[in-house]
Amino acid sequence: MPVIATKDLTKSYGKARGIVEVSLTVEAGEVYGFIGPNGAGKSTTIRTLLDFLHPTSGTAEILGMDTVTRSADIKRRLGYVPAEVNYYDDMKVGALLDYSIRFYGKPDKNRIRELGEWFDLDMSRKIEDLSTGNKKKVAIVQALLHRPELLILDEPTNGLDPLMQNQLFDLLAEEKKRTTIFFSSHILSEVQRICDRVAIIKEGRILRVEEIAHLKSRTHKHIRAIGPGMEGWKGFDLSGASEIEIKGEHLSFWYTGPLQELMRKMAGYPMENVWIEDPSLEEIFLHDYRKEG
Amino acid sequence: MVLLYWRELKAGSRSFIIWAVCLSGLMFLSLSMFPSFTSGQIIDINDMLKGFPENMLKGFGMLGLDLTKPMDYFVYIYPYVVLGAAIWGMLMGATILGKEEGEKTIEFLYAKPITRNQIFLSKLCAVVSQILLLAVIFYCVDVVAFAFFSGGAYDAGLLMLLTLAIVLIMMIFVGLGFLLSVFVVKPRKVMPIALGVGLGFYMLSIVANIKSEWPWLKYLIPYQYFDGIKILRNGGLDAGFVALALGVSVVCLVAAWLIYRRKDILA
């Protein structure tokens, strides 16, 4: 049974784009990345899954339960870290965590202490005095207190310094042994670092879902070359090449196809230098994004 | 649910103390002036009032009152306490539900294993508890004030009915507040509306007092449901208006609940 399963999930509200026919399946034990630029529909998808928003059409199930009719039962078994953290200003960190864990039954003080220490939280500080990064840490801790089966993270590294980001990833690496993680981000290197699969969302629609390993091993190569004093790049063309850009002596393009063909073609040009690079996930994404756009 | 209920009581305690102290203080201070109305004035206060235009006396609910009698005097200050209590009721109703969305703390709360019905009910119970507690405080403060300033001369039954009327009027405004809060969630936008509604009805109430030829008007104005002078003279609350008050309150709350359980929460 998948942990998250949506079928043609659509949410339109007002003039906002919302999401259109989003179909996803997240399997147990997976770390599932959800990637897209700001405004693509990541948070809308998550908020629809959490019943903050009612679907316009389509269905969604979490842990085999309908997200609208069984929302409270689902939430007993999931943890959520919102993109923007807002808590009750009058509360202290310790009180908030205690309040949070009581929703799930008897408070486990050891768990609060253990996670608090991991993130070096000062339990006696008032929420209103915390920086954005510290509020985010509290959000992550409160989401993990009850040992959820599913953890939904919406842009969890926003506001965390690099050191804390590393600590978060270490913690998630530990948690993934027993928790399914749904990780939304617009930073692909984060997803690359931790996720098994990734869904790319654009303008409310899922563009594709790929294994991270497959995504990284895609045959798209980024080719750059310099040919000093050359006008010869003009009219450069090659089967499998796309987005060819010629700026004076500089040539750059994306290539998919046999490397021998590429080498044969390039050998015909006097070059000062040539770079054949595996693209970063960001570049793959931007490349796909432009292509699909 | 109990967890959220206690949290709301705790979160609202500061506001409760401020309003309870201010409104009880207003009542106590006003009653403390009662002896000066009875102690051999150069001008008798009732004679003085006779010199006022009748419409003014009607408008402010003073027509026919004998201010040298403790319960009449109490009824004279009563509308101002009702006004304050109604505004507070509306503010409580309008902010307790909506502020979670307005301040975006709903992303914490509604990610917990709790249904929207439970959120609604817990918050409503917290509001009703505070109103009942306020009523008890009012009654106690009045009893003490009467003991001090009128030598204990008061009608306990009437005092209880007048206090009950405050509870009923507050419940109407709580209902209106809850209904408002499913549409307007930002506390800074809600506050002026709540104040405007509370004061607006008060102004209409003055008009309704004067315009006795418009009897329908009193059905539209919650303050008119339980007029202090009528309670004093009749010795009871009008059952029709009790039903109307409860009806308006329940209709507003049910409407707010139906909308809340289906609405998109845009944190």
What would your notes on this structure say?
- The complex is a heterodimer of chains A (293) and B (267).
- Chain A has helices at 42-49, 71-75, 93-102, 109-118, 132-144, 162-175, 188-194, 212-216, 259-266, 281-292; strands at residues 4-13, 16-26, 31-35, 57-62, 65-66, 78-81, 150-154, 180-185, 197-202, 205-211, 221-226, 241-247, 250-255, 273-277.
- Chain A has 293 residues and is of the alpha/beta class.
- Chain A is elongated.
- Chain A starts with a strand and ends with a helix.
- Chain B is built from 15 helices and no strands.
- Classes of the chains: A alpha/beta (293), B mainly alpha (267).
- The A-B interface holds A 13, 47, 50-54, 71-73, 75-76, 78-80, 82, 84-88, 90, 99-100, 102-104, 142-143 and B 3, 7, 11, 103-108, 110-115, 118, 262, 264-267.
N-to-C terminal Cα separation of chain A, in Å? 34 Å
The main sheet of chain A comes to: 6 strands, mixed
Give me the count of strands of chain A.
14
Helix content of chain A: 25-40%
Can you write the helix and strand succession of chain A as a string? EEEHEEHEHHHEHEHEEHEEEHEH
- Show the largest interface: A-B, 29 and 21 residues
- Annotation, overall tally of beta strands of chain B: 0
Helix count of chain B equals 15
Identify the CATH class of the largest domain in chain A.
Alpha Beta
Count of structural domains of chain A: 2
CATH fold type of the largest domain in chain A:
Rossmann fold
Distance between the termini of chain B: 21 Å
Alpha-carbon Rg of chain A, integer: 23 Å
Q: What is the arithmetic mean of pLDDT of chain A?
A: 88
The CATH superfamily of the largest domain in chain A appears as: P-loop containing nucleotide triphosphate hydrolases
Q: Strand fraction band of chain B?
A: under 5%
Strand pairing plus helix content of chain A: what structural class?
alpha/beta
- In the CATH classification, which architecture of the largest domain in chain A applies? 3-Layer(aba) Sandwich
Q: Could you estimate the helical fraction of the residues of chain B in percent?
A: over 70%
